[in-house]
Amino acid sequence: MTSDKVLNDQEKLILDCIERNPFISQQDLAEHCGLARPTVATYIAQLTRKGFLLGRAYVLARSERIVCIGGAAIDRKYRLAGPMIGGTSNPASGSSTFGGVARNVSENLARLGTNTNLVSVVGDDEDGQMLVEYLRNAGVDVSGVQTQHGAATAEYVAVLQEDNDLAVGIVNAEIFETVSVDTLRACWPTIVSANWVFADCNLPTEVLAWLSGQRADNRFRLAIGTVSAHKAQKLRGLLDGIDLLFTTDRDAAVLKSELKLVSRGNRKRGRDQEPDERNSRAVVCFHGPGSLTVTTSESTHRLAVPVGVVADVTGAADALVAGTLSSLLLGDSLTEACRFGIGMAALTATTHSNVHPLLTRSYVEDLMPH
């Protein structure tokens, strides 16, 4: 965890003392640091607010953790038996599974061995109960998933063509409009103490704006997934508060002018001051199961990996997000992390599941070209 950019000298001194002795009293801290006890209490409150301490008893935040905020849904997929014909019924075979961008990312992360929390909302129905229990069994901390009484769990319906490309997607996600800034405040100790926060654009615009505004003064770095071209519009005016944007060609077109402004801002910062990782911005554009472009202020790289027989592209982009963030957490460079992420996306596209059932980090690494 890098604290230099968000802590002052007194906060660093106090945090160092607590790391060496989590049971130290405020009076002993005051004497050791040469400060008044009320001043120490104020600094401890600030360390808690910034996510370096968790509540009382000076419980230090767990390192290497990612919080996912956004969609959790039931995915229903129908594969057409022939070419789609508009205006009439089309024969198809169907299946259902658990989905939602943030939910998919959180499960992928947990299966990679990453400490992961999900903040989301489900309905008070059987679908919601099963979704939460499934994630809990997969290793995701679901204490931040709220149940909205009188509402139905979100549902996404995908109609796939014979070649498994998406023909049309339909979503009933009104429940996500109930997620508010207060929802995030209720989970704030969990969110603010994370290394990375990933949020998807299923969240209301005001929630995304508030989250991007909180990033500058806190320890976490913020990644956002656009979800769709329609929902990507919510990010207009917010990109400067985002560290890493995950998008697609279609979604990026909606933000074209915004992305140019962010790129120019990155280059200006690079000329005017020393490089600062927390002030850099990057965009990862997903072109398909085996291809992406990663753009920073310094360079643009296109990465590609071989893809097997594509079964379903629905969860591939979410696998990319999880693979990239988990690798960044391990200390990989952005390019290295994206390489692992696109490998995960390619692997996920070969299965009909939103998350590959055999997923582990070593499984992905063994399948990637060397």
Topology:
Blueprint: H1 9-20, H2 26-33, H3 37-49, E1 53-54, E2 59-60, E3 65-69, E4 73-80, E5 92-99, H4 101-111, E6 115-123, H5 126-138, E7 141-148, E8 154-160, E9 166-172, H6 181-186, H7 188-192, E10 196-200, H8 205-214, E11 221-225, H9 229-232, E12 244-248, H10 249-254, H11 256-272, E13 282-288, E14 291-295, E15 300-304, H12 316-329, H13 334-348, H14 361-367
Parallel strand pairs: 3-6, 3-10, 4-8, 6-7, 10-11, 11-12, 12-13
Antiparallel strand pairs: 1-2, 4-5, 8-9, 13-14, 14-15
Helix pairs in contact: 1-3, 2-3, 4-12, 12-13
What labels describe this entry?
alpha/beta; nine-stranded mixed beta sheet; 370 residues; four-stranded mixed beta sheet; 15 strands; UDP-N-acetylmuramoyl-L-alanine:D-glutamate ligase
Characterize the structure shown.
There is one protein chain. The chain is an alpha/beta fold and 370 residues long. The protein is built from 14 helices and 15 strands. The strands form 3 sheets. It has a 9-stranded mixed β-sheet with strand order 7-6-3-10-11-12-13-14-15, with helices on both faces. A 4-stranded mixed β-sheet has the order 5-4-8-9. The chain has a two-stranded antiparallel sheet with strand order 1-2. β13 and β14 form a beta hairpin. α1 (9-20) packs across α3. It starts with 8 loop residues before the first helix and ends with a helix. Residues 64-357 form the Carbohydrate kinase PfkB domain. Keywords: Kinase, Metal-binding, Transferase.
